[in-house]
Amino acid sequence: xxGSLRPRQVARDAVLRFRPSISIxxxxxxxKESRFNVDFFKEFDVVLNGLxxxxxxxxxxxxxxxxxxxxxxxxxTGFLGQVTxxxxxxxxxxxxxxxxxxxxxxxxxxxxxxxxxxHCIVWAKDLLFAKLFGDKNQDNDLNVRSIDAANSSxxxxxxxxxxxxxxxxQYGRRIYDHVFGHNIEVALSNEETWKNRNKPRPxxxxxxxxxxxxxxxxxxxxxxxxxxxxxxxSLGLKNPQDLWSLKENSRVLLEALRLFFLKREKxxxxxxxxxxxxxxxxxxxxxxxxxxxxxxxxxHSLFEAKGIAxxxxxxxxxxxxxxxxxxxIEAIKVLKKDSNNYRMTYCLEHPSKKLLLMPVEPYEPNKSxxxxxxxxxxxxxxxxxxxxxxxxxxxxxxxxxxxxxLIMQGASILYEVGEDLEEDMVAIYAANLEKxxxxxxxxxxxxxxxxxxxxxxxxxxxxSIKHREEFDEEKEPDGMLLSGxxxxxxxxxxxxxxxxxxxxxxxxxxxxxxxxxxxxxxxIQEISEGTKIVTGKKRKLSEVFKGTAPDHSxxxxxxxxxxxxxxxxxxxxxxxxxxxxxxxSLTKKRRL
Length: 592
Known about the structure:
Elements lengths: L6 H12 L19 H4 L5 E3 L4 H14 L3 E7 L2 E7 L20 H5 L5 H17 L7 H9 L18 H21 L24 H4 L14 H5 L10 H18 L14 H17 L7 H8 L7 H19 L8 E9 L2 E6 L16 E5 L6 H10 L7 E5 L2 E5 L6 H11 L15 E6 L4 E9 L12 E4 L8 E3 L37 E3 L6 H6 L36 H5 L5
Parallel strand pairs: 1-2, 6-10
Antiparallel strand pairs: 2-3, 3-4, 4-5, 6-11, 7-8, 7-9, 9-10, 12-13
Helix pairs in contact: 5-11, 7-10, 10-11, 11-12
């Protein structure tokens, strides 16, 4: 923000400075809000997308499919970037290729034996923050460990609730002493666990902080609004790249907790971690650092911790500028309906064939895509142990990206979300969430086919249930396995010592798997001299539009090059780049 201006006003005013005659309606909101529905998207001739998370991108993709509006997707991650064009029924949609899911960790590692700072971040974000400020009814392994920790009343289920006879500082210290002190001592009592590991050390607030924080922090009561509440500002900590000491982390933790209750009490019980929420980032950073200190793990600055917690690869301005220009180029083609010249363009960190920009023709839709081709999915799950809540949170929302799900078995509705539901139906669906799948009014057992819809996205898919007794906690921490379509296998690589000229196709030199997501590590395939990639069936976009597919001798969609990430030798010493006025010659496909 600049001054009192919202980001939407800043962006609008910046554009109007060089094009004052155009009309811009700015919005500052969550794209998944119900007002941004299919009818809203139908108002546009093209949608240009540059969102910062996988879930929101998938949501927009489905709305564009439902509205039959072209989508120009884009994104950057450091020096890498890409722009892709998606048209319903003509090119692949955003979901046609799998996106790597965020890394998950076994619960036992997070709660008992962390060895990396990211383990501490996950503990602070998904357990401690969620327990203190999130849905109190949500299952939380931090709560389980606390109940098991001791039988005294001090460690009962309401441990994380603020008591009537204590102020916020006393409450904060009690939580601090329990999770960083008492719980560590309980963990140390299991000697078997620490035979081959370094033992953690319990940390209590009295050993780190003075008795009364207000004696040391003269500006703790300094006024601030809910929007700009910051523990760092309150404590006079200015540089987010500074490495805080254990004492400073402890002060930030307790001050952030205090500000949540003082300035944002109405939100407590409904909060989820948001990397753009300064106070939440401060709390998680401090909590993760205190836990890291306990387990002998190096501490991190708030800047570094925010990147880990929010899966952030920090932006490079020049990459963003290049991608912004490419977005406009593809948007102009879409508006002109110049379908023969649509390109997916990749921005590379190092030159490949003296090029930093690699344009390739769009791929046709994946016939096995469950989003645009409605291919049924299958789910392996223990129907006796898995609750409907687990299915909704871990599969329907996390994996399928639905926001307002409707789950049906035949004509029977098992679960529904909506503002217009009657109170008795809300109660029934809430009760269903706590039942195992086989205990639902219409039992879900092996062989059951569920229909799952998102009314806002106008998206529906079928899921076939297969009962499975056991799962590997390390490899399948969710206790479920979703499948239903096959990824493209790696292409055959032949080396015939024939150089690839700059005027020939570069479209086979890149994987189409998206590199734009900031929540994953990425790698671009770069092709060295003398390397030729032989792919299977791959129709030109022009052939898709004309409906005249050539004979490919039965080669399947899955046999084309799409996910190969092998990195080959590239000569990076020659920094001469080619800027060509004839992109057509660079992107025309060779016939094999």
